[in-house]
Design a protein that fits this description.
By secondary structure, the protein is an alpha+beta fold. It contains 9 helices and 18 strands. Strands 1, 2, 3, 4, 5, 6, 7, 10, 11, 13 and 16 form an 11-stranded mixed beta sheet that branches. A hairpin with a 3-residue loop joins strand 17 and strand 18.
Length: about 290
C-alpha cells in the first residue's frame, strides 16, 4: 500500500500508468478508518486487514503537488546521525558504536513538494529514508521492531549548519528545525511493495547554476544497504529507552555527498529532487528569506 494525505485526509494512492489516483480511506471504509492520517496507523492491524479484502474502486485523479505531509502530527520525530559508512568516511569520523540521536521539531515537518526559505548561506541537504511506526513498542527485540514498521517515505533533513554547530554546545535539533526543514513523502510505502527494502538506492539531484557552470548535478548517490544501524536495529535500540508510538517518524541518516563535506550549500533558485528506489520522489525549491 501507499498511504498519503490530501487536504488533511488519509488516502490510498496508486499510479497504474493512466495517471495518479487516490481513494479516500474514510469514505471507502464507511468511516471505520480515518480521515485523520495518524489514526490509520493507530489501528494498523485492523486497517491492514480491512485493506487486504476491501473492494476499492480506481480512485479519483489528483495532482501530486497537492500532497501534504503523510502524517503532520506525529507524537515523536527521531533523527539518526552518522549512520552511513560512506558518510562517516567523508567526515573522517569513526563509525559509531551506538545510535547518534536528535530530533527535528514537529513544526519543521512539511509535505513532499514545498518551497523552503533559506535563513542563511549555510543551508545543507541530507536525503534520508524515513521509517514510520505502526505499533507501540518498548524494549523490543529486532524481530518485533521489524514488525512495528508500517513503511518508508522519502525525507530531507535540511540543516542550517551555523546554528547546528554553534557553541557552547552543538544545537542539532534547532539547526535542523526551521520551517519546512523536514519535508517528506510522497506517501508511506509498506515494505511488501519493495523488492528489497534493505537495499534501496538513494539519490539527490540539484538544479541550479554552479561555479563550474553546471545546471544539474547529482549530489548524493548511495544505498540503504550502507546503513551502519539497519532500520529494525534503529527501532529496537530506540525502544530500549523510549516508547515508540504509531505514527512516529524516524529519519534514519544520510549517505555521502552532503554539502558541508564539499563546501557546497543551497542557494536561492536551487531545486532539489530526492529519490529513493521504490518509495518515490520529493522536490523542494529554495528561495531567499
Amino acid at each position: 500500500m501507499r498511504i498519503a494525505t490530501l487536504t488533511g485526509r488519509a488516502v490510498l494512492v496508486s499510479n497504474d500508468g493512466a495517471g495518479d489516483a487516490a481513494v479516500d480511506i474514510a469514505n471507502a471504509s464507511d468511516g471505520r478508518f480515518g480521515p485523520s492520517p495518524r489514526s490509520v496507523f493507530e489501528r494498523w492491524d485492523d486497517f491492514t486487514a480491512w485493506a487486504a479484502d476491501a473492494a476499492l474502486d480506481g480512485g479519483d485523479p489528483y495532482d501530486p503537488a497537492d500532497l501534504d505531509a503523510p502524517i503532520a502530527d506525529p507524537r515523536q520525530v527521531f533523527a539518526i546521525g552518522l549512520n552511513y559508512r560512506d558518510h562517516a568516511d567523508e567526515a573522517n569520523l569513526a563509525y559509531p558504536e551506538n545510535l547518534v540521536v536528535f530530533t527535528k521539531f514537529a513544526s519543521s515537518l512539511a509535505g513532499p513538494n514545498v518551497t523552503i526559505e533559506l535563513p542563511s548561506d549555510k543551508v545543507d541537504y541530507e536525503t534520508e529514508l524515513v521509517v514510520v511506526i505502526a505499533r507501540e513498542v518498548h524494549e523490543a527485540d529486532v524481530e518485533a521492531s521489524r514488525a512495528a514498521i508500517a513503511g518508508f517515505a522519502v525525507g530531507q533533513d535540511i540543516s542550517e549548519r551555523a546554528v547546528q554547530t554553534r557553541g557552547p554546545a552543538p544545537q542539532f535539533s534547532l539547526g535542523k528545525s526551521f520551517p519546512n526543514f523536514a519535508p517528506y513523502g510522497p506517501a508511506i510505502v509498506t515494505l511488501d511493495e519493495l523488492q528489497n527494502p534493505d537495499a534501496l538506492r538513494i539519490t539527490a539531484i540539484v538544479e541550479g547554476p554552479s561555479a563550474e557552470g553546471e545546471t544539474s548535478r547529482t549530489l548524493q548517490d548511495g544505498t540503504s544497504a550502507d546503513l551502519i544501524f539497519a532500520v529494525d536495529r534503529i527501532v529496537s535500540d530506540l525502544s530500549q529507552i523510549v516508547t515508540l508510538y504509531p505514527g512516529d517518524l524516524i529519519f534514519t541518516g544520510t549517505p555521502a555527498g552532503v554539502g558541508m563535506a564539499r563546501g557546497l550549500f543551497l542557494k536561492p533558485g536551487d531545486v532539489l529532487t530526492s529519490t529513493i528506489e521504490g518509495v518515490g520522489t520529493i522536490t523542494n525549491r529554495f528561495v531567499a528569506k
